[in-house]
C-alpha cells in the first residue's frame, strides 16, 4: 500500500512539473503523474487543464474538462475551479448555459468567502482597537454585502468596543 505524499512533497513535485518546458510532453506528463498520485490536488488539476488547452484536439479538451470537473468537485465548490470550468465551457465547449451555472456557483461562493473575510478583518481590527480602520472596512463591506449578518455582528462588536 502506498502512502499519500506530504503537502511539502506535493508542492515540490508541482514546482518541478511547472519547471518542465511547455513544448513537448514533459510538463503535461509530469502533471498527469502528479494527478494520478494525488487526484485531489487542485492546483495541479488546474495546471493540467491549462496545459491540455494548449493543444486543442478533442482528446486534450476532454482531459482538460475531466481535470476541471474533478477540481470543482474535490474543492467542494471553491470559486477558482468553478471560474476556470465556466471559462472552459464558454470558450472551448461553446456552452454558455453550462458556463452560466459554473459562473453563478463561483460568484456565490466567492461572495460568501468575501463576506467571511470582511467580517473577520473587521473583528481583528476591532480586537486591536483599530476602531476607525474597522469602521472604514465595514463601510466598504456594507456597500457590497449590505444584508450581511456576519458583517453586522462584527460592526456591532466594534461599536460596543468603541463605546467603552
Number of helices: 8
Number of strands: 0
Mean pLDDT, rounded to whole units? Answer: 95
Low-confidence stretches: none
Anisotropy-based shape? elongated
Helix content: over 70%
The proportion of strand residues reads under 5%
Radius of gyration: 21 Å
N-to-C SSE series? Answer: HHHHHHHH
Overall SS class: mainly alpha
Largest sheet: none
Q: How far apart, in Å, are the first and last alpha carbons?
A: 60 Å
List the helices and strands and how they pair.
Elements: H1 7-19, H2 26-37, H3 42-52, H4 58-74, H5 79-91, H6 96-127, H7 131-144, H8 149-163
Helix pairs in contact: 1-2, 2-3, 3-4, 4-5, 5-6, 6-7, 6-8, 7-8
Write up this protein:
With 164 residues, the chain is an all-alpha fold. The model has no long low-confidence stretch (mean pLDDT 95). The protein is built from 8 helices and no strands. Helix content is 77%, strand content 0%. It has helices at 7-19, 26-37, 42-52, 58-74, 79-91, 96-127, 131-144, 149-163.
